[in-house]
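[step 3/7] inverse_fold.run input=structure_tokens len=332
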């Protein structure tokens, strides 16, 4: 029997990431090849005509799974009954800016859209915040939408996770699909900690630690970490625009694994509500290693954290605490 359509909201859908992600969702990349979807796209007045153009293209592409398109500048209409909300709307940083430099513009958007989601979305809506500063926007959304369960509000660090897999794959000349269990800890910013201490590579059905295969602590502890932390800035420098296709694809990975589950023995990184695991202050939206089953994520427990890692986990938590107070000062 055919499944009922899932309603997926994409805010900022006329923007770069929006334009890249809506065809992925309509093709089943996010929710599977047998899951019909209804796309809800939210834009702002100056982008209304462009948003209508995206809707026209979606119709023209004749996607078999796409059962309807709502394109609107009205947040209430956009949020009505949505099951999944991908929050991309906002202002991207430009060359030379840190992600928190876009804070004042973006946190007020997230405060306003929190109420629209809380009032009009399905009660079990799953939210993914992509717009920067992603962790802090998600935190503001969580605090201004108290009826949405905190476990349902997440932010995107899967792009950083995928970037880390990509760097290891390039270094070892192995396929990226054979690398797993890197971790992105903390903020989606230049203080994030890409951790390879538990990562492995499977070659000829044998699983080996990345540290053993790379056998170059200097590269792993310095160059690898800096490359992943600075990859967003490197893309902006090269494209004069922030990452879009990789962000869209990683957002699909995030939702797919959250809804359909992570493969056995594999974890992924998600920005989620901290329950105090690994000594991280409760209530921050912090990126942890998680596994997902039956639509629920759980933080992987019991990983050994050495002194080097401890310092890095705490430094990125400290930045998130500072961003939180900066966000509140922007809102007041
Ligand atoms: P973009 O400027 O191309 O698109 C953003 C869109 O949002 C625009 O169409 C704009 O009109 C719209 N918008 C602005 N305010 C809005 C509002 N209140 N409601 C709805 N829509 C609104 O930007 P982009 O390149 O698509 O990037 C979007 C965001 O994603 C940026 O904040 C960027 O920094 C962030 N980003 C995050 C990651 C991540 O890994 N977390 C990766 C890449 C980009
Ligand atoms: C990225 O990581 O590519 C995005 O967050 C865009 C940015 O500002 O770096």
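[step 3/7] decode complete -> sequence:
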């Amino acid at each position: 029997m055919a499944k009922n359509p899932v309603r997926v909201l994409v805010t900022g859908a006329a923007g770069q990431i929006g334009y890249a992600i809506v065809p992925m969702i309509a093709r089943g990349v996010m929710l599977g090849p047998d899951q019909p979807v209804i796309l809800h796209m939210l834009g702002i007045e100056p982008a209304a005509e462009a948003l209508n153009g995206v809707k026209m293209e979606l119709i023209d592409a004749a996607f078999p799974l796409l059962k309807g398109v709502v394109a609107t500048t009205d947040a209430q209409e956009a949020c009505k009954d949505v099951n999944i909300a991908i929050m991309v709307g906002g202002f991207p940083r430009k060359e030379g800016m840190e992600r928190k430099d876009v804070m004042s513009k973006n946190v007020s958007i997230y405060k306003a859209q929190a109420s629209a989601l809380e009032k009009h979305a399905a009660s079990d809506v799953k939210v993914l915040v992509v717009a920067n500063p992603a962790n802090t926007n998600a935190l503001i959304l969580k605090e201004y939408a108290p009826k949405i369960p905190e476990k349902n509000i997440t932010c995107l660090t899967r792009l950083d996770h995928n970037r880390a897999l990509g760097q290891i794959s390039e270094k070892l000349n192995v396929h990226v699909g054979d690398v797993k269990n890197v971790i992105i800890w903390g903020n989606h910013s230049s203080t994030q900690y890409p951790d390879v201490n538990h990562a492995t590579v499977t070659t000829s059905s044998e699983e080996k630690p990345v540290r053993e295969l790379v056998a170059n602590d200097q590269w792993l502890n310095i160059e690898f970490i800096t490359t992943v932390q600075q990859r967003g800035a490197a893309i902006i420098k090269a494209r004069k625009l922030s990452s879009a296709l990789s962000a869209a694809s990683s957002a699909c990975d995030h939702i797919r694994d959250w809804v359909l589950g992570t493969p056995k023995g594999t974890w992924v990184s998600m920005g989620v509500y901290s329950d105090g695991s690994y000594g991280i202050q409760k209530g921050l939206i912090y990126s942890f290693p998680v596994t997902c089953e039956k639509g629920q994520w759980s933080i992987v427990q019991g990983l050994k954290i050495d002194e080097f890692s401890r310092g890095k986990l705490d430094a990125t938590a400290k930045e998130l605490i500072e961003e939180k107070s900066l966000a509140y000062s922007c809102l007041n």
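[step 4/7] annotate
The chain has a mean pLDDT of 96.
Residues 187 and 316 are 6 Å apart (CA to CA).
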